[in-house]
Amino acid sequence: MGGSYKVMKTAALVLFILMYILMIAVPKYRPYYALTAAAIFLAAGILPPADLVTAVNWNVLMMIAGTMIIVYYFIDSLMPVLLADMLLEASKNAMWVTIRMSLFAGVISAFIDNVSTVLIVAPIGLAICKKLKMNPVGMILSISVSSNLQGAATLVGDTTSIMLGNFASMDFMDFFWMNGRPGIFFAVELGAVATIPIMMILFRNYRDPVPSADRAEVSDYLPTVMLLLMVVALITASFIPGTPEITNGLICCTLALITIIIDTIRDRNFEDTVASVKSIDFGTLGLLVGLFVVIAGLTNVGIINDIARLIVKAGGNNVFLLFTIIVWGSVLISAFVDNIPYVATMLPVLAAVTTSLGIEPYLMYFGLLTGATLGGNITPVGASANITAVGLLEKEGYQVSFGDFMRIGVPYTLTAVLVGYLYLWFVWG
């Protein structure tokens, strides 16, 4: 029995590492790697098939799907373009346009997932760059790294935030104020403010004046209303005790369905209805399903507990050392792998670590989210939003090397992480 258990444990670890290597080497097929690994885990009994339904976090999947549908209509309404035009009017030159576009992306990303934020804001940035006759690489990459940063600010801003909220039973307001102390929202915002001087240095040569332009006309205010209603509903639901775990997912999907029904009845445009459903990134959903199964399998065979023991051994009983390892180790790891599977792996590890040390887990949870979210900004393969941004640039004929990305990502990341790291320790340490 012991021998077969060790074999199963070794097989699970090898499959997990192989899946990661393939995700880094050929990220285009990440969902297939995750789903294949999940299927092998189930077939081999690493995760009993009976545990499949409970292993998958349906709440997270439904939140992402519903939000993507509403975002589709939001983009189509031209509201993001109007907001961008307003930013143009307030900017003196191309440098401040770039900085404001970056901050604008951050604000949106606090309430919408990072990939959707890039898909909303990057096309606007490309249009602005064409109008200003400037290379768009700097602006688009700045938009991407900013969206990754701000995604950790609220419960609904990023998949990793949603996962943390679900795992730790945190509500929307816990990200702002929790247990009598300011939450991770302020760590993220202080980091964002600290990056403004960095962007001023990076884009110091962007001095071309901004020409005046007519504001875009919003064709439909329904998506904006539904998007705001979704945020309000999520906040409200977080205050209601005893709600089912799937509540947030039901809210997002219900509002998405209402948006589709109203738009279809009003405009009789069934092609638009089909397009809204097709806008769901089924690849990301498939990736998450696979990862949920794989992580559950790793937990089932004891690998998560093994990782927890290694971290405890490295940090010892020194909470500051452990916190430092988690933050900066997460930055290093997330620079090369997607932060979604990494955070999914580490959350149960940190729960076990903090329980063994007899301390509250929130310092470590917030440190994990800070390091893992921002670490993806170091390289173009560290986060889905970065991969999306680079893909948009390549479609426009601009090739982005690792060096091009890191010139922006490294100083941005180190600055924001350092500020968040110090804040979290002094407030929560």
Notes on the structure:
- The protein is mainly alpha-helical and 429 residues long.
- The chain has one domain (2-428).
- 74% of the residues lie in helices and 1% in strands.
- It contains 20 helices and 2 strands.
- It has helices at residues 2-25, 30-44, 52-55, 58-76, 79-89, 94-109, 114-132, 137-150, 159-168, 184-202, 222-238, 247-267, 270-278, 282-300, 303-315, 319-334, 339-357, 362-375, 384-395, 402-428; strands spanning 177-178, 181-182.
- It has a two-stranded antiparallel ribbon with strand order 1-2.
- A hairpin with a 2-residue loop joins strand 1 (177-178) and strand 2.
Integer tally of domains: 1
Q: Count the strands? A: 2
Shape: globular
The largest beta-sheet arranges its strands as 1-2
Main sheet summary: 2 strands, antiparallel
Number of helices: 20
**Oligomeric state of the chains in view:** single chain
Helix content: over 70%
The mean pLDDT is: 85
Q: Tell me the structural class.
A: mainly alpha
Give me the strand/helix succession: HHHHHHHHHEEHHHHHHHHHHH
Rg over CA atoms, rounded to whole Å, is 22 Å
Low-confidence stretches are none
Secondary structure topology:
Layout: H1 2-25, H2 30-44, H3 52-55, H4 58-76, H5 79-89, H6 94-109, H7 114-132, H8 137-150, H9 159-168, E1 177-178, E2 181-182, H10 184-202, H11 222-238, H12 247-267, H13 270-278, H14 282-300, H15 303-315, H16 319-334, H17 339-357, H18 362-375, H19 384-395, H20 402-428
Antiparallel strand pairs: 1-2
